[in-house]
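Researcher: Re-running this chain for the archive, since the previous output was lost when a drive failed. Same request as before.
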Amino acid sequence: MKNIWMVTTFLFLFILVMLIFYHLYYRMNIKHITKQLKEIMNIKDTNELLTVVVKQRDIAQLVNQLNNLIGDIRRSRIKIKRLNRNFRQSITNISHDLRTPLTTASGYVQMLKASDLDKEQQEYLAIVLERQNMVKILLEQLFEYVRIESGEIIYKHIPIDAKKIFMDILVMYYDDFYKKGQEPSVHLPEKPCMIHGDEQGVKRIFSNVLFNAIVHGKGEYCFEIQEVGSSYVFTFYNLSEPMTEDDLDYIFERSYTKDKSRNKKTTGLGLTIAKEITKRLNGTIQAFYNNGKFSISISFPKI
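Model: Regenerated structure tokens:
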């Protein structure tokens, strides 16, 4: 009886020790796999795969499945990179190929416009010129977007007065507000708003957002700069058509436009470009809709 009890105790202790070791190896494997995953995810170009410290069937199966998934992700990344590269090259080629004939056509239209035409013919030519200018703007924005996305345009990070740039762009669009019979409400701080940025880049951001407001806005324009914590926030308000959460989610996406008929003078790239430049200048840009008013807020760290 005593021998049976000793054997039973020994077996129990043996099983307990085995379970403890199995548990420890389990934890070692999980920690090892987690560490490897973090390293693999942080390194863009690597062919490393997951390994295990101690072979355990269920852990080994999990690692095999994860390695298959990692392989699929890498192949997808390579495919997306290739597609993006081809897209950028196609846009560049299209821009170059269309610029010359477009410029030539514009010259002939201008010559016709200067000739002795009746009122109806002049109106038709004005429409043709407007459409040509729209195509020109589209090509320029496509070309600019491709250059920004590919990293070809390098933005400086030097001290600049964003308030002065903001005011310069507002003045540039004064005639557009005047033609709409609108007088924007402007609220600015007295002191300069110094940020680390690129003057041309910040000009493009403000210009694109203002142009979007003029084209799509319904009135009651209000533009302001606020000092919020460690940032300067530049906000553009205007009355707007009703907007859904989907509109706000996708408004900065490439070629997205709420005007599905595309009858307005917009390409859908202006806000996308504004967002890309803002990100490269360490800023943030957001869109909101509340009580019939649409707003875009751009935040830059102050210095």
